[in-house]
Amino acid sequence: MKQTLTAALAAATLTLSVIASPATADTRITLKAAKAASSYYAMAVQLSEAAKSAAGLDVTVEESQGSVQNVKEAIRRPAGYVFTSPPSLIASAQAGKKPFEGETGYDVVRGLFPIPSLTMHWVVREDSGVKTFADLAGKSFIAGGKGSFGERKTGDVFAALGIADKVSFVDVELNAAVPALKNGQVAGFATAGSYPAPNVTEAGAGTPIRLLSLSAADLEKVKGDQQVIPAGTYPGVNYDVTTISLPVNAYTVAATDDETAYKLTKAFWDSKATMAKSNPWWGGVITSMLADMGATLHPGAAKYYAEAGIAVK
User: Fold this and answer.
1) How far is the C-alpha of 194 from the C-alpha of 197, rounded, in Å?
2) Which residue has better confidence, 82 or 26?
């Protein structure tokens, strides 16, 4: 069952639209990110600063919608379009599976580099009485940003756990989730982003919250890599939380020029250690994650990896 609240759309993905002019030495980049309260928006800001300092790129950060839309735009956007998405969505798009039924052309997607993994968070009010996923039966819950990968993943997880038809899903955009939780309009919400996720931190400021953990039996039913959010990551959550994470990568399209792809890829890896000093989530990005790219590398990115001596399987 769905209810409707009004708010602006948020998503734990980001989109970069790059405009490279061969007539100038500068590459102007529009970096579209998630809502300002999300971890992926913070990543976008850091990436923009890295691109400016490491490669002299002209970068503007803007808000973005969800990863599904990001992927869908890959077949309509011109050279220079760069976006992030879980590789599973790329696979679905290229196979014409939901939500890309009847669509073609996604073979233009090319890989650049991995970014911090998407970690699922299921947050509830401490006073909601919800301590397990089964306890959500009969409760109102925001599954994630409308049209986002996190929303779809929550639906898949709840279906696997047998509670999807027992929860009253509230159909809103993600930045309505924290106010709705604090005002008692919903028992909780789901969000997908690297921890600590700013919107979860905000939710726990002044309002006791609980993060739901997947049990060993639950993990056998759902798809995703087991991830533990350490105790103390969020206000009042003084216990480890077992959840799942999924890889997320930066992609572009085949028409993007090699120089732009090369400069973006090099700027990312050259700046990763510095970015990790401010946000530890970057420290978890390692070159072996390139194995989960799920798309052919862009020649510009491949050039960087060859020069750096990084083997890409």
Assistant:
1) 6
2) 82
Give me the count of residues in the chain: 313
Does the domain at 118-246 match CATH 3.30.70.1250? Answer given as: no
Domain boundaries, the chain: 15-115+249-308, 118-246
Q: Which CATH architecture has domain 15-115+249-308?
A: 3-Layer(aba) Sandwich (3.40)
| Widest pairwise Cα distance in the chain | 62
Distance CA 19, CA 30 (A): 8
Amino acid at position 112, single letter: L
Cα 185 from Cα 182, distance rounded (Å): 8
Does the pLDDT of residue 59 top 80, yes or no? Answer: no
Q: Do 15-115+249-308 and 118-246 show the same overall fold?
A: yes
Can you give the pLDDT at residue 11? 42
Dist CA 254 CA 260 (whole Å): 12
Instruction: State the amino acid at position 202 in one-letter form.
Output: E
Q: Which of 175, 160, 140, 165 is nearest to 64 (CA)?
A: 175
Q: Minimum mean pLDDT among 79-88, 186-195, 284-293: which range?
A: 79-88
Q: Are 37 and 177 in contact (CB under 8 A)?
A: no
278 burial type by CB count under 10 A (0-12 exposed, 13-18 middle, 19+ buried): exposed
